Amino acid sequence: MQKRILVTGGAGFVGCHLCERLVAQGHQVIAVDNYYTGRRENLTALLGLPNFETLRHDVTFPLYLEVDEIYNLACPASPVHYQRDPVQTTKTSVLGAINMLGMAKRLGIPILQASTSEIYGDPDVHPQVEDYRGLVSISGPRACYDEGKRCAETLFYDYKRRHGVEIRVARIFNTYGPRMNLEDGRVVSNFIVQALRNEPITLYGDGRQTRAFCFVDDLVEGLMRLMNVTQPLDSAVNLGNPVETSMAEIADLIISLTGSRSPIVFRPLPQDDPRQRCPDISKAHELLHWRPKVPLQDGLKRTISYFEGVLSKMHDPVRR
Ligand code: NAD
Ligand code: UDP
Ligand code: UDP
């Protein structure tokens, strides 16, 4: 059945992949974005298709559309970008959630929130299960994002309890892949671009901090399965690839996959940078029969070829 589907943040890294999958399934997709970190080029393959539309709009303001489903992804995700205008980041999460929940309530439709592993903060439980309440700074530089996303989740649960809105909350762990922005600032794109240019790889801290990296296609599959769950949901689901990797390992892997001559240089660890992070995905597995399929090496190879293409188009020849 063809649905009209709203994707906020549709011109961003995850959003553009999600829009492509939904359009390919024959749905009518509307990508809403204010282009804070997203780009129209991300949507090149879709622009002009009869079942795809874009709308420049900031989700902190009300929006009235008639749709059948909402994926609420609007929010900068990279620390560099969400800390650039922290007040706007909190507004995007909180007011954006209120407006999109208001729309879901008015229309009686399901809505999915792109929440984050950051709501666990610098966790003292490992791996992180959904019941863990987190260890989050209320005042540090990451708080605008972490607390904004926590408040957005609270709004989702209250709209469910008070108004019966059909909610889905995905706690997304670090995701990477083609169409990350060159200037995104997150570790995978930074290291790949540095490696391809034979520039120093900037390893923050001692490089022993860990993350678990999910390839974007796997994440999008998880998001769509979560949206399509038929039983009522009133709590969050972790989505991520539970292979814990240190940043030093990621640097070495990217240097070896690119054949780069880049040296590794150590830079100070940003304040409140979580030391360890890895999802427990048992709930996603039981509920969605979902597990990530793309191994890190394969996903990195695909991301590296993407960035090789981007750099060569910019006449920034890959220096080997
Ligand atoms: P991204 O920065 O590439 O995309 C976010 C998009 O939202 C951009 O297109 C941006 O322009 C848009 N946007 C920002 N503020 C907006 C506003 N006020 N109104 C309308 N549009 C706005 O980030 P991403 O990696 O694609 O992340 C997508 C979502 O997934 C975000 O909500 C993020 O918090 C969440 N998430 C991502 C990851 C990850 O590793 N990629 C991890 C956890 C959670
Ligand atoms: N809203 C929106 N689009 C809609 C419906 C509501 O942007 O289709 C906004 C509305 O402007 C309000 C917010 O969502 O600011 C919350 O709506 P709700 O109905 O929950 O709250 P109320 O209007 O009663 O304050
Ligand atoms: N990081 C790094 N070098 C970089 C960018 C990031 O060592 O050039 C580290 C960062 O300190 C963190 C990890 O990589 O420990 C993941 O950072 P990212 O910004 O990608 O995601 P997040 O911290 O939000 O999980």
From TrEMBL:
Domain NAD-dependent epimerase/dehydratase: 5-239
Keywords assigned: Decarboxylase, Lyase, NAD
Annotated source species: Bosea vestrisii
Protein name listed in UniProt: UDP-glucuronic acid decarboxylase family protein
Domain of life: Bacteria
EC number: 4.1.1.35
Keyword Lyase listed: yes
TM region positions: none
Cofactor(s) the protein requires to work: NAD(+)
Family annotation (InterPro entries): Epimerase_deHydtase, NAD(P)-bd_dom_sf, UXS-like
GO molecular function: UDP-glucuronate decarboxylase activity
Gene3D superfamilies: NAD(P)-binding Rossmann-like Domain
